[in-house]
Write a sequence for this structure.
């Protein structure tokens, strides 16, 4: 990125060129306004840094000239004159900053803050995916060149809102840039409204609208329809880059927040020791299957699995060996259950299993196998364990209710313990057909 340095003092020229280089910019040094004009015609500058007095001429009059050639540039004025009116005059003429040449260290400090490190436009945006909707091929070529070459974005371009909304149905993007007037019947405004109503994650995408008419009514209409930002045509390259950069960095930040939220939710739903769901996770996931079974009139089974005489295991082999058994059991239950089954640690040495689409006989068969697998399980030590299992099932037109099923499976489990442990007991669920569930208390 280039910086134009207009300075006739040899000392300052060397000092500033070196400083700019160290901040990551390419300085172009000139000593007169005439040379400056030639440079401004030839290159595009991010910053123009000039001395207030040059060849006896006041540089303030030169500032509008800089903006005419280089509308995106930030103008910095250096002066040793502390007269109070100068700052105001310079700012009015279009300078961003006036720096006093009081000391080298002051200049370094001020310039460092202003320039930061040279921003590399493509670091953030490289390979990010942009949907660009524009009907004019000429305009599309100009904008695409900036987005692809300067910002290294991946562009997918189309000319109509209808195509764009179709793509947004099943492709992933980081940003949408759209023109207002498009090919076909639908406009950019239509696209915006449809996009915000999508039922996938693209509904939250940042949208940058390019508009030819910069009137307040149009701006309000676009913002109301859900545009995140807009740029008026003709589009200024620097402005486009900055706005696209801001939108993408916000999107990435939001993605990170959502990912962290998902991670935290994942953790909140899991049991730390066994990696199975905890009670909270079990309830959350079960709700989905319960209402599915109810809607689709499908059977559903629920089992409680409790290790036998586990207290003795702890007492005899130590708590760590006990933990190892619980880990092994969690792993076994997860490995041996179907993908749609929900396996959770209900508490202590007790696990719960929800088996969607499983009737009484299938459920019984499944948990008997599990019981045998527990008895044969490698506990990590030279002892084996057994489990007692209580199971219940509902079949349509019964409507499932989680609490009732758990209470019922718990009663069945109690009977299994009573019957001598290491066995399975089934108990019918008292839910009446299609009626309101029976609740305790
Ligand atoms: P029963 O056959 O009647 O179920 O007997 P039990 O000993 O398994 O049942 P009880 O409820 O008397 O004891 C459960 C034991 O499980 C007591 C408790 O210390 C142990 N326990 C609960 N949570 C953990 C855990 O996270 N780690 C270990 N190592 N032990 C646990
Ligand atoms: Mg157009
Ligand atoms: Mg037990
Ligand atoms: Mg128990």
């Amino acid at each position: 990125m280039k910086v134009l340095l207009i300075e006739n003092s040899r000392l300052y020229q060397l000092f500033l060129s070196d400083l700019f280089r160290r901040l990551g910019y390419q300085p172009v040094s000139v000593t007169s306004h005439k040379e400056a004009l030639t440079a401004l015609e030839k290159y595009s500058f991010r910053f123009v840094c000039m001395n207030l007095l040059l060849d006896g001429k006041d540089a303030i009059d030169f500032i509008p000239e800089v903006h005419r050639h280089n509308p995106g540039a930030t103008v910095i004025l250096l002066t040793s004159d502390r007269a109070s009116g100068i700052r105001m005059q310079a700012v009015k003429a279009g300078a961003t900053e006036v720096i006093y040449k009081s000391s080298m260290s002051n200049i370094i400090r001020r310039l460092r803050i202003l320039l930061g490190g040279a921003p590399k436009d493509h670091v953030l945006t490289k390979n990010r995916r942009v949907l660009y909707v524009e009907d004019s091929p000429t305009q599309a070529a100009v904008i695409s060149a900036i987005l692809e070459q300067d910002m290294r974005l991946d562009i997918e371009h189309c000319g109509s809102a209808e195509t764009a909304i179709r793509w947004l149905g099943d492709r992933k993007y980081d940003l949408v840039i759209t023109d207002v007037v498009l090919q076909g019947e639908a406009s950019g405004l239509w696209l915006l409204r449809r996009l915000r109503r999508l039922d996938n994650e693209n509904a939250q995408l940042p949208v940058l609208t390019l508009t030819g008419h910069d009137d307040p009514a149009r701006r309000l209409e676009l913002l109301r329809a859900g545009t995140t930002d807009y740029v008026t045509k003709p589009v200024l390259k620097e402005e486009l880059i900055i706005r696209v950069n801001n939108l993408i960095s916000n999107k990435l930040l939001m993605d990170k927040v959502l990912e962290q939220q998902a991670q935290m939710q994942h953790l909140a739903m899991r049991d730390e020791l066994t990696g199975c769901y905890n009670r909270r996770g079990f309830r959350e996931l079960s709700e989905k299957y319960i209402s599915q079974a109810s809607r689709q009139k499908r059977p559903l089974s629920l089992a409680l699995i409790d290790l036998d005489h586990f207290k003795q295991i702890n007492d005899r082999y130590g708590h760590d060996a006990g933990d190892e058994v619980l880990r092994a059991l969690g792993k076994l239950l997860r490995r041996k259950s179907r993908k749609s089954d929900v396996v959770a640690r209900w508490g202590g040495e007790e696990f719960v299993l929800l088996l969607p689409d499983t009737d009484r006989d299938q459920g019984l068969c499944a948990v008997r196998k599990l019981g045998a697998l527990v008895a044969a399980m490698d506990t990590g030590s030279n002892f084996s364990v057994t489990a007692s299992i209580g199971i219940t099932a509902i079949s349509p037109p019964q409507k499932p209710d989680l609490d009732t099923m758990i209470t019922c499976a718990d009663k069945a489990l109690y009977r299994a313990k009573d019957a001598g442990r290491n066995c399975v007991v089934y108990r019918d669920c008292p839910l009446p057909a299609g009626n309101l569930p029976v609740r305790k208390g």
Remarks:
- The two ends are 74 Å apart (CA to CA).
- Residues 390 and 413 are 4 Å apart (CA to CA).
- The longest strand covers residues 300-307.
- Residues 273, 306-311, 314, 319, 322-323, 326, 348-349, 417, 421 surround 3'-deoxy-guanosine-5'-triphosphate (ligand 1) (CB under 6 Å).
